[in-house]
Amino acid sequence: MKKHHVVIIGGGFGGLHAALAFKKEKNVKVTLIDRRNFHLFQPLLYQVATGGLSPGDIASPLRAVFTNQKNTQVVMGEVIRIDVDDRMVVLRDTVISYDTLIVATGVAHSYFGHDEWSQWAPGLKTIEDATEMRRRIFVAFESAEREDDPELRRQWLNFVIVGGGPTGVELAGAVSELAYHTLVNDFRTIDPKETRIVLAEGAPRLLPPYPEELSKNAEDVLTRRGVEVKTNTFVTDVQQHQVTMKCGDDSETFPTRTVLWAAGVKASPMGKLLADRAGAELDKIGRVKVNPDLTVPGHPEIMVLGDLANCPDKDGNPLPGVAPVAMQQGDYAADLITARVRGEAVKPFRYVDRGAMAVIGRNEAVAHLYGWRVTGFFAWLIWLFVHILNLIEYDNRLLVAVQWAWNYFTRNRGARLITHQPNLILRQPKNEEDWKRMHEESPELINR
Fold it and tell me: Are strands 265-267 and 107-109 parallel, antiparallel or unpaired?
């Protein structure tokens, strides 16, 4: 009997869980395609960005994950086209046929039509994003240490975080922990406690999808920890040395060298590819509108999962782009395909919302679980347990647990590394004469 061939594009939460769910299915073979050779636990990217964890702590090699799953092959490659009529996925160097195709390629950060801001305000979706954000955060403190101009020093010690969702709240809390605790004794000419952290959110409150009580708690905790929370505030311009924000009719220009972007997403290019090749309908951010069984209308052999799918909840609103949604959709996709192979029927997908959590900092988190609203230390413990449990490999769970325990008792963040710094000019020239002198002293750094 010919095995049913399932091709999965994307090794994120949706694609990975779908592939894993086929482990005991003898009549199915799986090919998992990804541009990377690892699965990334995105909810903990902010920990890499702030020096709490190393990239390897939250990434699992895909081949290691599927070592003992003999019906699954991992292919590292980039999909450039889907031949819907002949059921083939075209990579740059080969072609792979499929019986059922699962597309789960996720989203990227969006700058709302201002992509030029990306050079000054890195987002947080990939390992490279996290290490770039980490570089900028720690270079800011290093540059301030060497700067004798008070105005320029203030620019380096001012941080703006754009977006008050879970990522923005977690980043704000982590940067606060760095400035007011971890780094407080590490410098000689600056006091890290002089750092200003601004968190800008366009909605009336932080964590808009959460109950208002939890949003208020998050804002109160961040405020106590030195973060200036600005709600109903929109960023209208981002430049190298400043950010312009607007609240109502009032506009403010805030001097800063470090902007961290945690607002807005757009679908991966695979959404447009499905629109062109399979006639899929896209929403305004490029997600694919799917049937209740996660298939593309008119193409029951193509399923779309996770952040790339616009899948409505019971009220008709798109499900949020969070890991639990993608994981449940991955499990459902495997069940649907297995049932089809057996000639059985499966009910439409229904998301079971067990709640949401966001950590604010040491001993502080907010959680909305099964209707219960939890804050403070207990919510923080739940957050720790859930995130460690959901890491894919056992060694990652152990590494992260040990690292967090050490960080908790020492307040130290051991992965405070500045990498990829080819043009190391930390002190800025103040005038033409200063620039010439720096050029004479270090021409290899200036000529770039």
Answer: antiparallel
Instruction: Determine contact, residues 393/60, Cβ cutoff 8 Å.
Output: yes
Render the burial of 213-240: b for 16+ CB within 10 Å, e for the rest.
ebbbbbbebbeebbbebbbebbbeebee
For residue 16, give the nearest of 53, 57, 64 by alpha carbon.
64
Q: Please, what are the averages of pLDDT over each run of 10 residues along the chain (448 residues)?
A: 93 97 94 97 96 95 96 96 96 96 94 93 95 96 94 96 96 97 95 96 95 96 97 96 95 96 92 95 95 96 97 89 95 96 93 93 93 94 95 93 92 87 56 60 46
Burial of 329 (C-beta count, 10 Å sphere; 0-12/13-18/19+):
buried
Gap between the Cα atoms of 387 and 400, Å rounded: 10
pLDDT of residue 414: 84
Catalogue all structural domains in the chain, each as residue range(s) with its CATH number. 4-35+77-109+265-341 (3.50.50.60), 115-263 (3.50.50.100)
Q: What is the pLDDT of residue 424?
A: 53
| pLDDT score, position 2 | 87
The burial of 195, by beta-carbon neighbours within 10 Å (0-12 exposed, 13-18 middle, 19 or more buried), is given as: buried
- Is residue 441 among the annotated active site residues? no
Both tokens of residue 353?
């919302």
Q: Which of 25, 147, 170, 177 is catalytic?
A: 170
Q: Compute CA distances 70 → 65, 120, 412, whole Å.
A: 11, 45, 42
Q: Which residues contact 378 (CB under 8 A, 6 or more apart)?
A: none
Supply the DSSP string of 83-97, one letter for each residue: ETTTTEEEESS-EEE
Across the strands, what pairs with 83? Answer: 88
Q: What is the pTM of this model?
A: 0.90
